[in-house]
Write the structure tokens for this entry.
Amino acid sequence: MAVDKIEYDKMMKKASPNSKAYINIPLAFIIGGLICVLGQFLMTSYEKLGISTYFSGTVASITLIFLSALLTGLNLYDNIAKHGGAGTLVPITGFANAVVAPALEFKAEGLILGLGAKLFTIAGPVIVYGVTASVIYGIIIYIFKLV
Amino acid sequence: MEILMEYGKAFLIGGIICAIGQVLIDYTKLSPARILVLFVVLGVVLSGIGWYQPLVDFAGAGATVPLSGFGHMLAKGVKEAVVEDGLIGAFTGGLTATSAGIAAAIVFGLVIALIFKPGDKS
């Protein structure tokens, strides 16, 4: 738990380098918006290449995850995140960054409990609570016959 | 022109969702990890009550790229699977719908972490 707390604090610092909300919030809007525009560009491009509308969003997400993982490996995503705050945290690229960064940092502790475990430092809770919420939703709509 | 409108809508909605995250960072004590969890769970809830799909229809990637879109995919997958398979769908639908993203994050995360050296965080 202690390590996780340090991890969170580090992420916190990265996402909020200064406390000037009147700068942070517009910056988050612009950078987050631009990442979404990139996602839209990828979706549109994949559809032009003949990928069905059903899959274009998924392939665009995979591309964004790859780009973010690569930029994190090159230590570039953190530099963007210094300015982007939530604009770089909230998009799927922020999720990918949160997967790669701790894995990379704790690689020295071994491939299993270092890299392998730390990969899920942030992704773990996101998947745990996301999946649980969706299962509860599924049980509710099943019981009350809402679909 | 239509394509510019598409980008404009993606920028606007995606930007607003991220700005909400920044408001939470600046005005609450929520850590980024909690914000990510909050956005995913909110995505599930908003999708469940039928509010998120209209946002996706309007803004495209502006609504699907933020992590709330991941929550929406979980809920949408569960809904479709419950229609198809009944109660078991509540358990299969979410991860099935989001499997590509999760697998990509795991595999790219592993490969990148193996290839690169930890950077100077200072």
Remarks:
- Chain A has one domain: 2-120.
- The first helix of chain A runs from residue 2 to 15.
- Chain A touches chain B through 87 residues (CB under 8 Å).
- Residues 73 and 100 of chain A are 7 Å apart (CA to CA).
